[in-house]
Amino acid sequence: MPAKLSVNLNAIAMLRNRRDLPWPSVEGLGRIALQAGASGLTVHPRPDQRHIRFSDLPVIRALIDDEFPQAEFNIEGYPTEDFLALCASAQPEQVTLVPDDPSQATSDHGWDFRKHQAFLTEMVGRLKKLGCRVSLFADGDGNADAIEIAKATGADRIELYTGPYGGCYEAPERAAPILEALGKTADAAAAQGLAVNAGHDLTVGNLPPLVKRIPALAEVSIGHGLTADALEYGMAETVRRFRRACGQRV
Q1: Is the pLDDT of residue 109 over 90?
Q2: How many CA atoms lie within 13 A of 204 on its CB side?
Q3: Nearest-CA neighbor of 117 among 100, 102, 136?
Q4: What pTM value is reported for the model?
Q5: Which residues are catalytic?
Q6: C-alpha angle 170/231/40, rounded to 5°?
Q7: What are 9-48's pLDDT values in tens digits?
Q8: CA–CA distance, 220 with 119 (Å, rounded to integer)
Q9: Which parts of the chain fold into alpha helices (H)?
Q10: 4-178+197-240 domain in CATH 3.40.50.300?
Q11: Where are the domains of the chain?
Q12: pLDDT class for 105, splitting at 50, 70, 90?
């Protein structure tokens, strides 16, 4: 089955937040994305609310529940008590835990699973009691031992951090070994019974090789590149382009 596409709304929210105005509408563009066949919506509500605001969460939850009940809501974040409270309120189908410092501009590395195993085990357990599927942000470095520890936390999935792969846009010859390491990490996850998501700097151009190397890829979460393309092609056509790049029949 081709990878599903979850549209990350953070960049849209950041553009909205430049002015004290309600546009571009996070809800409205999320609706267009889902109408065009996206399988879900992703947000990362950071403590400073510099893009997604806490007040956006119930709006997105209602959009999915009322109009697209087959879609999923994915919330990313570092598992503080405040973040867990947001998840308890919004009831996302999936929670993706990232090891970000609140001051980071964006996610730029996966968890050190050995160092944080006990902490993640507790957080995963608490989130699964809420009924959420849990995915853990992971470096795609081919480290099978790290993935074994990720499995031991009780997580359902890992999300491969694809930033280094996406960063090869000006030097495609560097992409092949990074892609292979991502593939080996996904292979290790599959051997442990973990499903695999991926996200960060994915584009229409670099998605097809990724899904070819990882044919069992469950989901990709894409925001910046997708939003940039939407400025040129419109949100609906951009979602269709990314769905095709995932191998979906559109």
Answers
A1: no
A2: 14
A3: 136
A4: 0.96
A5: 44, 76, 200
A6: 90
A7: 999 999 999 998 999 999 999 999 999 999 999 999 999 9
A8: 26
A9: 10-16, 26-35, 56-67, 81-90, 117-129, 144-152, 163-166, 175-191, 207-213, 224-233, 235-245
A10: no
A11: 4-178+197-240
A12: low
